[in-house]
Amino acid sequence: REAQAHRLCPPRGSGSSLEPEERSMEPPAAPEEEEEEEGAVPLSVAPGPVGCQLFGYVGIEAVLDQMKIKTMKTGFEFNIMVVGQSGLGKSTMVNTLFKSKVSRKSSQPGQEERIPKTVQLQSITHVIEEKGVKMKLTVTDTPGFGDQINNENCWDPIIKYINEQYEKYLREEILITRKRKIPDTRVHGCVYFVPPTGHWLRPLDLEFMRRLSKIVNVVPVIAKADTLTLEERAEFKQRIQEDLKTHAISVYPQEDFDQDPEDRALNDRIREKIPFAVVGADQEHQVNGKRVLGRKTKWGIIEVENPAHCEFPLLRDLLIRSHLQDLKDITHNVHYESYRVRRLNESNRLG
Length: 351
Prior knowledge:
The protein has helices spanning 2-8, 19-25, 30-38, 62-74, 90-98, 156-173, 203-212, 230-246, 261-273, 312-322, 324-350; strands spanning 76-83, 122-130, 133-141, 189-194, 218-222, 276-277, 284-287, 290-297, 300-303. By secondary structure, it is of the alpha/beta class. It has a single domain, classed as P-loop containing nucleotide triphosphate hydrolases (Rossmann fold).
């Protein structure tokens, strides 16, 4: 009987055809379970090497093309505010910046300009397109700012306007059924025009930038810089930088928001140049066989886009070519977020 049973149930490892079926029905051995439980990280969730090499083309880079196509279809919004006294060339500068008539003149030639008694905000919206990319540009002008004998609290209408745009966006955002794309009228950048006095910043300039830098990205520029010599311009810029540092005024790009080392190095070079000494012009002139934007004077033509003549190219690169998206990100993640937190805390206290 023992020999017959041995023939029917051969020992393991004998190579019988019944062996695979018997193994498949058996549960895993206990020692193997203990070894898996003692392992620090399971094999299935172990972190992979950084920069893993692919064996073939996957198509991950096509994500950038998808984002570009979607942006070109939907377009994007950019809202800029210009603040300064009358006659500093705010409208001309905006027209030069975007190379189009996006900002109206305050008065017609030959007509006497009537200075408003209070600060009146005027917004003009245009859709401009370049190489298939559409941008909805809103320019907000502030005629009447700093033109009165008593300029006390002349920044209040500007602060009110900026907060109203935050409030409008917040109301759309907290709706139960909100729009897929909320219209963005928030001010992404405020260009403040400093008169080319060659001395120090006025109390009006300091107070305005101190208050506005807390709720919006402020970019100071020296208007009509061609009225200063190169030596006067360099000395005036140094005095303005000292004033901003003494009064703890943080203009854009803010040093506190630099996270990437490369961004910090780039922004440090920009901060050394701020405020930009700019010259605006909306007329073309012939220079060495080329048509250039510039202002014609008795001693020659001041080329707006020539870095040796003025720092307008630096301002254009900052606002459009290199930091436009960063202006929008800081507006949304810092300034608007601060307003949103404050408003929701007020609502909770009232509730």
